[in-house]
Amino acid sequence: MQRKHLILAVLVTAIWGVNFPITKLGLARIDPLLLTAIRFTLAALPWVFVIKRPKVAIRWLAGYGLIFGVAMWALINLGIAMGVPPGSAALLIQFSAFFTLGWGVLLFRERLTGPQVLGMLLAAIGLVGILMGSTGQATTVGFLLVMVSALAWSVGNVIIKLSKVREIFAFVVWASLFAPIPLLLLTWWLHGATPFIALPSQVDGVAVLSLAFQVYAATHFCYWGWNLLLREYPASQVAPLSLLIPVFGMVSSVFIVDQVPSGLDWMCTALILSALAVGMIKVPANGGFRIRLPK
């Protein structure tokens, strides 16, 4: 990988990792669902007027927008608001890689290799350790919400695959149009007019900074940078770099929101990162242990 692209890869993963504690700063001021609705409104507008719509059916845009905005990021924000440390959220969302493998087996007749199965087992052990170390019922529910968001992200990956879209950045921008209205309706249904009435007094400099970072850095810049790397290099060379995201997320959480992981958290994090690394090990096409569903 060229030096400029390696620098870009580290910058993208760092921004994605730092985005989790910066999102928590916004959540300390604004309702989680309302914050998510504002984020995706700004991600879509006014950009849909200057970026050409990708050449895919509207159902793929709508499906991905609802998955990405409502079922993924809204649940992540709810989990963090319920006490999940931002670094842990950045780590658990990586479980989408294993969920995606499962969808590949179920829907596309792909095969699981021995390292992938071992990686799933190690990750499951690490997840159990994190849940056992969670403080309080609300935080445990928050962890489960983040895991559901990881599952939702894997469904989003399936949508990307089925739609065969090539203009990923435009796809994300246009799909973002479908998230705000359901999120606003959910906010009203759960909390009434209170979050909307309180919003003007809650929008201070920190909230604006949090939203701007989420939209223009973590969404627009990072999706552009990551897909540029995927265009220039094989996915197998780019994908392992995503392991840096939870590292940046946990380290930055110490400085931004003063959340220091416990010894158990660090151990479980190391185990899950190892599991993700093991799951990326390539096995020769004509050898190795494989699992395949019967036709």
From TrEMBL:
It comes from the Bacteria. One of its GO terms (cellular component) is membrane. Residues 6-131, 142-277 form the EamA domain. InterPro entries: AA-Vitamin_Transporters, EamA_dom, EmrE-like. It is a multi-pass membrane protein. Keywords: Membrane, Transmembrane, Transmembrane helix. Pfam families: EamA. It is found in: Membrane. The chain crosses the membrane at residues 33-51, 63-83, 89-108, 117-135, 141-160, 167-190, 205-226, 238-257, 263-285. Its main location: membrane. PANTHER family: AMINO-ACID METABOLITE EFFLUX PUMP-RELATED, INNER MEMBRANE TRANSPORTER. This is Putative amino-acid metabolite efflux pump. It comes from Pseudomonas reidholzensis. The lineage of its organism: Bacteria, Pseudomonadati, Pseudomonadota, Gammaproteobacteria, Pseudomonadales.
